Structures are given as C-alpha cells and as structure tokens.
C-alpha cells in the first residue's frame, strides 16, 4: 500500500513538472509583440543573417550628430554628383558593398569620433548595433502621403519665386528619343505614372526618385538660406492627421467641374459627375485615379464585366466591395454612425430604383455646372425636405406614438415620431452625399417603414399591420420587431438610451413585488 | 497487487466490448435517429440578445425561485461571468469581444437529444421527454451528483444548503408549460425575440434561413445541430462559439456513446462471470474427482 501511495505522489510530481515545462515552452513559442518602426529609423538587413540580426539604424540621430554636411559621411554621389539615397547608398557601384566595406565605414567613424571625444556609436560589441531580432521586424509603416495639403505647402513657397514654371520643379516628362526630361505644363501627373517601385535602366524607382529630388532640393535651398523642407526622415515621414479637405486649395490641372461619364447603353443616361465636389472630399487624386490622372474610360473600356486586361467601366464604377469604385466608396461613407441606423448591412446588390440619382443625363441636363450652384443645390434639397416635413399634418405624421405592449410591468413608452424624423433630417444636412441620395422625405421614412415602397403620399401601414402577436418565420412579432428596430438603431447610431427605462418607466407596484 | 491485475483485466475486457459496440452507435448517429423528431426546442440568436435579463426574471417567476441577491434590472451583474445555480436555472453572461460589440449569451440546460446526465444517472432520475425537455424526478434521485459531472455544459446545480432533501436543479424547458400549449417563460419574456420556440427541425431551417439572409451577420454554423449528438437548444452567433463560452471540442457523438458500450457490458459480466467461474470450478472439481476415483477403486 505504501509503495503505491509513494509512486502515486511521484507520478503527480512528475506530471506537475512536465506541465510547468510545457507551459514555459509554449510561452516562449508565442510570437513576441512586433514593435512598429518609428519614423527616422531604418532597418539595415544583416548580410550575415543567422549569425547576427539586422540593425535598427537611427538615421535622424546620425544626421543630427554629423552636423552641417552629413550626407557625404556615408552616401556616395553618382556621376552627376547627386547623393545615392536608396539603392546601395554606401557603394560606388550598384552592387551590394562587402561586409568589410560597410563595417569599415561605420566602425571607422565610430572609433574616430570616440577618440575625438564626440558622441559616437558602439565600437566593440556586435550586438549593440545588431540588436533587431529577425522576428521583430515590424511593418515599415512610414509610407509618405504627399497629399493636397503638402502640395499646397510647396506651391505656396515655389509659385511666388518661379511663377507658373514652378510646377516643373518636380513634375516632368521623359522624352524617349532625346533621352531627356522636358517640362509639360498641364500634363502634370502622379510620380507613380512613370516611377515604379523598382528602378529600370532609364527610370529610377519611386523611392530613389523622390528621395533624390526632395532631399537634394531641400538641402540646396537650406544652403541658399531659402525656406526649405525637412532633411531628416521624420520631417516628411510623419503621420498626417486627418483634416478638413474642403479648406485645402484644389489642384487645378484643367479638370472639369462636372465631368460627363457616358454609358454604352442608350437606356442608361450619362452621369454628371461633380468632380469639384468629390475633390473637396479627398486628400489626393489617387483615391479615385490610380497612377495616372487620365479619365476612367482611357483604361476602363465601356461596358460591363472584365476581361483579361481590364475591368470594364460599369463594373469599375459599381463594385460595392471596392473602395475605389463609386459605389464602394459611398458604401464606406455609409459606415458612419449617422447612416448606420438604416444602412445596417453592406449593399448586397445595386438597387434598381436609384440609378437616376447618378445617371442624371450629365451636366447639360442638370443645373449643377457652375461653381456656386453645387452648395445651393444641396441646401435647397434639404430645404425642400424640411418644408415637406413641416407641411405634414399631425394626421399624416403623428407627433408621438403610444406603445404599451409591456403594460403589466412598464408604463407606456411614448415614441417621438416627429422628433425622430427631425433628427434624421438634421443628420442629413451634415452630409452632401446623404442629401444627394435622399431626394425625398419618403426615402427617409422607408428606413423604419421597410418592405413598403417609398410613397410620395407618405401613407404607411402601422407596425402591427404586419407584425403579429407571435413571431413567424423571418418576421418577428410586434414586441420583437419594435425592440429590434429601436434598440438596433440606437446601438448602430451610438445614440445611447439603450436601457429598459430609457423608453418606458417601470411601474412602481412592480418594484414592490420584486 | 491482485486487485490491480483484475482491474486491468476488466478494463481490457470493457475496452474490447466498447470497441465492438461503438461502430454501431456511430452509424445510428449518422442515420439521424437521435432524439425525438417532433420534439420542441429554442433557437437563441446571440446577435439579437441585448442582455436585459428579462429571461432570468421570467424563469425565476415561472419556477417560484427565491429572489436574487441583485435585482434583475441591475446591469452590473453582467460584469462577471456567472453559472447556473439551484436558484437561477438560467443566467445571462456578457462576453466582451476584441474590436466588436460585446455578445451576450443566456446559459441554461441545452436539453441534449442524448443527455449525458440521464445516461450517467444510476437510478434513472432524468428523462428525455417526447417534447424535448430533459426533466428530473427528485423522488428517484439518490444525490450522487454524477449528472453534474457528466454534463458537458456544467449546468445542473445542487441544493447543498438543504441537508435533508437536497435536489439537483436545472432548467426544465418549462415542460409543464409546453404540455399546456404555452411557450417557455424565458422565450415569452424576451423583448428582442432573440429566443424563438418551435419544433427543433423547423428551428434548424429558420436558423439556416437567417444565416442565408444575413450571411455577414453570423458565423455559418448552428451550435447544437450536431454537438454531442444534437441539442434541443440551438444557437446562432456573430462570433466563434468558444468566444461566448460554448465548448467547441465536444464532438458530434453523444457523450453516452463513449461509455454506453462499456457500461452495458457490466450486467453481462456480472451475470456471466460467476457462472463461468463456477462452471470452471465445477469442471475442475469434477476432473479432480475423476482423477481420484481410480485410486479409490484400486
């Protein structure tokens, strides 16, 4: 008996030990949290990976420490005297420098500075530089967003100095025949139209091109004591805060105020696309235009569907899940809490009733063609809705509704029917998109009065007409319908007031019983 | 040491028998012969539940349970996870989700089609009724609480406070009310209609219809359709079921099938083993006597 007891205790102890080891092992296998790489720091890959991890190189700290002319300490200059910035900055040729070369450059400098009693980097232990564990390589979140605000900043400095030709400071085209850059006023485009990710023999890669152009120009202007931009990494690669783009000047390049988008079918009218209104919503043209600033139809052929090369125009504009398509971008806008009350789920298919809201025949047909007409139209729209709302008698639109389904426990809930519509109208006023797509009061009403065609006469059935005492398949009973509708909307629109007593007060005698 | 060997022997014997019995049970499960086809159930749509706890209150009233420590309209109760007790056959828990609104879930007996509590009960105090409820008879109960160990959802609770006639307590699916043609009290009380009462087969169809109508709203799985051989309480959820405290590792086989083969062999062993041993003894004695006879005769 004793031996059995002892062996039992032994087994238990062994099991505990094994469990502890297992927990420790699993803990060490879990991925460590990946730190985001701050602006101003670069990851220098280690050519001897396996032995030593990569280096997290603090570029800005080096720039600061090296004083007035920091670039040449590390960067090579190409034949034209421009410092190599991105690809193999340390090497003369476009081949990777040897281990001895990179280490020689870094370590010589560190040691020199140390001997001169200047601030210096590590000189002895390898791990002081090679400190970035491979699995800790975070996503390089330093994408620079050269938006309309930044563009306007450059314009504000360069235009007074150079006039119209200031655009050519950055924008240019390449002549294949002459093998030279030339100015092309009015044809300005995104850098990405020509500069792709990787360099080609004739065209520099995007990173190379923008770093050389921007940093060189900033440095030159600094040298000339002119107003200049940042020369450290963080100066440009800092996250931009969202701003009100309507206050940022437009980028004018001869684009129409209202563009006409033609359709292939004669049954569907052309779209009068208010280009100016859409510009004021976004920070960059690339939100809709991809790499070029061409019209959509230049790449997206007229028609529907897609073939091997292209997505056809109608599909490109109507794909709900693609935020670059018209419908997809509007879908994104509808994620706003103000819209989520009614628009509670992603668009399943295009509604066939609202085509005419975009396909209005084009600028010749609609009056939205001059600069100031756009705002007046939308405000007059809300005005018309408000007028229609106020004209409704209390017979057609009851001020309040009395709901007393839970009369045994709660006092009746007073549903502020008219106030709710008023609130929706206020929210509508804040969004030009919403105004455009809710041209009639009936469109708003159909948010709650679902499964009923929006009617001009605004005659709607009461909830109890469809929702009975008990639930039926796919159709909740009246109690469920009201709670699902009211609470669902309050939750999705972040309106609060989702507690029981926010709508109906508990009857006092019930409190005594409980 | 002797005892150990016998146990090993019996274990091996039982294992072999269970191995023989198992394939039969699995085939039966695949044919869908589990449970009563006309039984009732409840579909619980977690995407609709708002955690108002009216179901708890209704359950409390319908079963004449003692008043709770904290009032039913006190939302602070939801701040920690609770389990069912002998005075609360159902409780609502809130499960916070990362980057999504919290999901509430009502806990109660799931009324398995092949209830493990009933199969574990040595005296048959649990009955799976034709209407779907798993009900308990306190007159038969001997208080062994095997049912509490057997339940994969940890539902049955025990009246530990009662020294004389303690009972196992759990949701009855309001069996009496169902027999009277009414819906369970909690279902009737739910203002969001997150709970729907009906024939289990119809509820399954409705659950699938809801998923098809709003595929982005739901995990495409009806919990309880197959879990532990199917339960009469079915769940739809916007998030994975293990994130709302429902075990997802139970398998689709009724839990009683895992032990049924072995347990059903025990009576056979009890009946046959003495006979076999007795026979061996008789045979041996007979042989010994036969061996002795010539000696006596000589």
Concise summary:
The complex is a heterodimer of chains A (514) and B (298). Chain A is mainly α.
**What structural class do the secondary elements of chain B suggest?**
alpha+beta
Q: List SSEs of chain B in N-to-C order.
A: HEHEEHEEHEEHHEHEH
Q: Low-confidence stretches of chain A at least 5 residues in length (pLDDT < 50)?
A: 25-35, 134-141, 366-376, 510-514
Q: Give the helix proportion of chain B (percent range).
A: 25-40%
Strand order of the largest sheet of chain B: 8-1-9
Spatial strand arrangement across the major sheet of chain A: 1-2
User: Any idea how many domains of chain B?
Assistant: 1
Could you tell me the strand content of chain A as a percent range? 5-15%
The level 1 CATH classification of the largest domain in chain A is: Alpha Beta
What does this structure look like?
The complex is a heterodimer of chains A (514) and B (298). The longest helix of chain A is centred in the first third of the chain and has 28 residues, at 2-29. Chain A is mostly helical. Chain A folds into 4 domains: 2-136, Cytochrome C3 (Alpha-Beta Complex), CATH 3.90.10.10; 148-211 and 237-247, no CATH class; 258-370, Cytochrome C3 (Alpha-Beta Complex); 378-511, Cytochrome C3. In chain A, the strands form 4 sheets. A two-stranded antiparallel ribbon of chain A has the order 1-2. A two-stranded antiparallel ribbon of chain A has the order 3-4. In chain A, strands 5-6 form a two-stranded antiparallel ribbon. Helices cover 39% and strands 5% of the residues of chain A. Chain A is extended, with a radius of gyration of 33 Å. Residues 25-35, 134-141, 366-376 and 510-514 of chain A have low confidence and may be disordered. The two termini of chain A are 58 Å apart. The longest helix of chain B is centred in the last third of the chain and has 43 residues, at 255-297. Chain B has one domain (40-259): 2-Layer Sandwich (Alpha-Beta Plaits). Residues 15-33 of chain B have low confidence and may be disordered. By secondary structure, chain B is α+β, with helices and mostly antiparallel strands. In chain B, helix 1 packs across helix 8. Chain B contains 8 helices and 9 strands. Chain A binds chain B through residues 345-346, 406, 471, 473-474, 476-477, 479-481, 483-484, 487, 491, 498-501, 506, 514, and chain B through 48, 50, 52, 57, 67, 71-73, 75, 101, 190-193, 196, 206, 209-210, 213-214, 216-217.
